[in-house]
Specification:
Low-confidence stretches: 135-161, 282-287
Structural class: alpha+beta
Radius of gyration: 27 Å
Distance between the termini: 73 Å
Length: 631
């Protein structure tokens, strides 16, 4: 078969020697090869960093080798013909390791649009499933990306979805019918439930299955009428999988058998649902990855708004698949970043490109990748050029207001306290931001200095700057200002967990949230503030709460036991907060942070009390040290 125009024959032949390209149509490989870009990396060069933005390209090693490094440990060596970076690209999560050239290395870089099509094919899906399972096997006994160094037992905080039991990945309700049911009625039941299959229990304790594919191929194509019986078109006996089988293994078996639906049987022998290939793959590809691709192709603000409507269902689906809370919030933040970037691109097209470079900064929980569905969107803008130019500032403010308005239409309200790029105070040149930050560091007694420090130290560029955190990095000077650190420590004592004298939970006694717990102000903010203070003391700026706790422990600013207590409390409260908001989203209610303690199980109430008391104990200890002049 002839090569498509522009496809180097040698490159095409090379790709076809390795999976997943060796199982793809040669013409398709040639088309992918025509869009390949070539990269060369000197030995020791970092190709992408650990914790960086999601990978935007697929890379295949042509010559040389690449080390995959996590927290200083080499996890794997990728050699000729092997691929890397696809897990981050598909999941939408920040990179879980550093990719570093182990020697002079030549890579083929494949465009995202070609990778999308490649991984949508059976061969691509099979490759993804196998690589995920292989990764889990290879890192099970190592300090893997999911392993937490603060935990003495090395417990994995974020289990790989490929290892989740398949029962946890079922996203649709079970629909069943008798063998004598008419095909018309079965199809109606499928349509009403929004599912693509119906299960038929059979007398011999096996089951049959009728899928949307059967309706097309056996009913329409073979001329069966709607009054025909289900048993005439169903597949029986259907292959059934156990509820505890790992999702990645089930996906592989689906691909090997050439089917898309498996009924799932519980240990008690009951059919609990039907898992589809999309259920298993969704947590890696068909949620964040495809949504971000749709956002990138949006041609108008209305298109962006339409795409944003898929974010809440995506979060709900990930929760149903038992994905770790930290991963769900990280993926959600990646999608919000994508929405912001596309709105910025459309705003620049509408208002004209400014004569200087600028960057859009996410602030607060969005910057830390910890924003829940109830969160406001805090933002700022920094430009790189003349400091005092009213014309430039006016043009950037127009662009910012357009973006903030677009985010509002997408359901993301701006910060109620004014931390927004639509506010002139938050649109400045880099020199102005850095001068202001140095001023707050040298004299933290200035009006709003501590609040603005807390806001800006969390800043993270999402558009316009590809490396570094130029505003937040100014606060690396914080350890040189003991006064700032003491005042930030006192600020971390402002919000107290709702513990009571009688070992109860303190709830609000007035207003619309009477009788409820405020999980944000009483639970999350005290931990976030403590971690921010400890991170600044360790010269760590823009980072997640857990990363700050790790760094503070390494720098001896927090004891390992205190850091672990804060991390456990943060994960417990954040998980409860997200579950509460997902319940509200499912009910069509606006998400909030106020939980009725009576709705919690006795075990959860007990754990929540212990978490609050642990945080309050650390606050008291810090307060005593401040009073004694130790801090």
């Amino acid at each position: 078969m002839s090569e498509p125009p522009g496809a180097p024959p040698e490159l095409t032949r090379f790709l076809r020697e390795y999976p997943p390209f060796n199982a793809v149509d040669p013409e398709e490989v040639g088309r992918i090869a025509a869009g390949v870009e070539i990269e060369f990396h000197r030995s020791g060069t970092t190709i992408f960093s650990e914790g960086a933005e999601p990978v935007a390209h697929l890379r295949v090693v042509r010559r040389g080798a690449v080390e995959l490094v996590h927290r200083g440990h080499v996890l794997d060596l990728v050699s000729e013909g092997e691929m890397f970076g696809h897990a981050s690209m598909l999941s939408g999560l920040p990179t879980g390791f550093e990719a570093r050239a182990a020697e002079d290395t030549l890579c083929y870089r494949i465009q995202a649009k070609d990778a999308t099509q490649l991984f949508a094919r059976p061969a691509g899906l099979r490759f993804v499933a196998r690589s995920l399972l292989d990764w889990a096997d290879e890192t099970a006994d190592q300090d893997s990306p999911g392993e937490d160094p603060l935990r003495p037992d090395g417990a994995a905080a974020n289990p790989d979805p490929a290892q989740q039991p398949v029962s946890a990945l079922i996203r649709s309700q079970l629909v069943s019918c008798a063998p004598e049911t008419t095909i018309r009625e079965a199809a109606q039941r499928m349509t009403e439930a929004g599912v693509t299959s119906v299960v038929i229990p059979l007398p011999d304790d096996t089951v049959g299955i009728l899928t949307d594919r059967d309706l097309r191929e056996r009913v329409l194509a073979d001329g069966l009428g709607g009054d025909a019986r289900v048993f005439e078109a169903m597949s029986a006996p259907a292959y059934v999988v156990g509820a505890d089988r790992p999702g990645g293994e089930v996906l592989l078996e689906m691909l090997d058998r050439g089917v898309r639906h498996f009924p799932v049987r519980s240990a008690a022998g009951q059919i609990v649902g039907v898992v589809e290939d999309r259920d298993v793959v969704a947590v890696h590809a068909r949620s964040s990855f495809y949504l971000r691709r749709r956002i990138a192709r949006a041609e108008s603000v209305a298109d962006v708004v339409e795409a944003a409507r898929e974010l809440a269902p995506m979060v709900i689906a990930m929760a149903q698949a038992s994905i770790a809370t930290s991963n769900i919030l990280a993926v959600r933040s990646v999608v919000v970043d994508a929405l912001t970037r596309r709105l910025l691109e459309l705003a620049v097209e509408a208002h004209g490109k400014p004569p200087i470079a600028f960057a859009w900064l996410a602030l607060g929980s969005q910057a830390r990748r910890e924003a829940t569905p109830s969160a406001d969107v805090d933002s700022a803008l920094v430009w790189f050029g003349p400091e005092d130019d009213p014309a430039i500032k006016a043009q950037l403010l127009t662009i910012s207001q357009t973006v903030v308005d677009g985010l509002e239409r997408c359901g993301f309200r701006a910060d109620a306290h004014g931390a927004s790029a639509a506010d002139p105070l938050f649109v400045r040149s880099l020199a102005s931001w850095q001068r202001a930050a140095r001023s707050w560091i040298s004299d933290p007694t200035q009006d709003k200095a501590l609040i603005l420090t807390s806001v800006l130290v969390d800043s993270r560029p999402v558009w316009g700057v590809h490396t570094g955190t130029p505003v937040a990095d100014t606060f690396r000077l914080a350890p040189d200002s003991p006064q700032l650190l003491r005042m930030m420590a006192r600020l971390a004592l402002s919000y107290r967990p709702p513990t009571g004298f009688l070992r109860g939970l303190v709830v609000e006694d007035t207003g619309e949230h009477r009788g409820r717990l405020d999980l944000k102000h009483g639970g999350v903010i005290p931990i976030v503030d403590l971690a921010r203070w400890a991170g600044l003391a360790a010269s760590v700026t823009s980072a997640s709460t857990v990363e700050r706790l790790h760094a503070a422990t390494a720098a001896a600013k927090l004891s390992a036991s205190d850091a672990l207590s804060l991390q456990d409390a943060f994960e417990l409260i954040t998980g409860l907060r997200l579950r509460h908001q997902i319940t509200q989203l499912r009910a069509g209610q606006p998400p909030d942070d106020h939980v009725d303690p009576a709705s919690l199980s006795p075990l959860m109430r007990s754990q929540l009390k212990e978490a609050f008391r642990a945080v309050r104990s650390i606050q008291r200890q810090l307060g005593a040290e401040l009073s004694a002049g130790v801090r």
